[in-house]
Amino acid sequence: MERNEPLDCNGSENGMSEWTALAIAMTAACAVVVAVVVLRERRIGDSADTSETPDVIEYMTMMIGVVYAIVLGLAIAGVWEARSAAGDTVQHEAQALREVSLRAQVYPAELRDRIRADVDAYVRYVVGTEWMYMDTHDGVSPQGTVLLDRLRQDVTGHTPQNELENQAYQPLIDQVAAVDQARTARGQDAGPTMPGVVWFGLIAGAVVTVGLVFTFQIRRSWRELLLAGAFSALIAFLLFLIWDFDDPFSRGMTVSAQPFLDLFPAAVHHG
């Protein structure tokens, strides 16, 4: 498992730094809101009438809050679905490789061992090197493609010699094609999935929604300050959650290579 240690360590360090960033963002959001309320209170003094808020402002605030909540919900659902799809893709790729390794049993010993060695080499490379490559390049590596092409050549280059091999030939080719398809999908899933314009809308909506807190002329009572701070911290947390799920293979709650480790423990250990 020596090749996996850099992957695990990096994931742990990234997770720690991101949770620290989340704590800082939530604290900063609370501090900004409280500071603005306090400064505003000092500026207007006791002369302002805070007993009433125009009905139209209450209505606008409610509508904007509802719309922004819907947008946040859709964004969270979208990035979660993308992350789940990426996890399913990794599972399908590992399972297809397992099928290739098992179905090669009917082939002559030399060819069977060569196919299984190709599978093991590909798995070791994906787990030990390509996972970190996806983090920095937002895609799969050329070397991984070379290893998969070698496996495909060994599978397709053999002419079946008997009925048993003939029956296994096409399913083996289909499984290699399934690996290729899953690998392509994994490369497409690497990197951020949310367009920049969506992020602009989410951040602008957060600013507007938090800004509307001040339309109610919040005073410096501890209950009002606590409510304003908690509301701002909640929005900061939800935005962080969307950002964390946005890149399935690079950030804190990443899609791991565990399916490969579960199905090919011996290959990874020997690597």
State the order of secondary-structure elements, H for helix, E for strand: HHHHHHHHH
Shape, per Cα inertia axes: elongated
Beta-sheet strand percentage?
Answer: under 5%
Structural class: mainly alpha
Quaternary arrangement of the chains shown? single chain
pLDDT < 50 stretches: 1-16
Q: What is the number of helices?
A: 9
Could you give a short account of the major beta sheet?
none
Give the % helix.
over 70%
List how many beta strands DSSP finds.
Answer: 0
Mean pLDDT: 80
Measure the end-to-end span. Answer: 7 Å
C-alpha-based Rg, rounded: 27 Å
Number of domains: 1
List the helices and strands and how they pair.
Blueprint: H1 5-44, H2 55-103, H3 109-137, H4 142-156, H5 163-189, H6 196-211, H7 222-246, H8 258-263, H9 265-270
Helix pairs in contact: 1-7, 2-3, 2-5, 2-6, 2-7, 3-4, 4-5, 6-7
Describe this structure in words.
The protein is an all-alpha fold and 271 residues long. It has one domain. Helix content is 79%, strand content 0%. It is built from nine helices and no strands. It has helices at residues 5-44, 55-103, 109-137, 142-156, 163-189, 196-211, 222-246, 258-263, 265-270. The longest helix is centred in the first third of the chain and has 49 residues, at 55-103. It is elongated. Mean pLDDT is 80; it is low at 1-16.
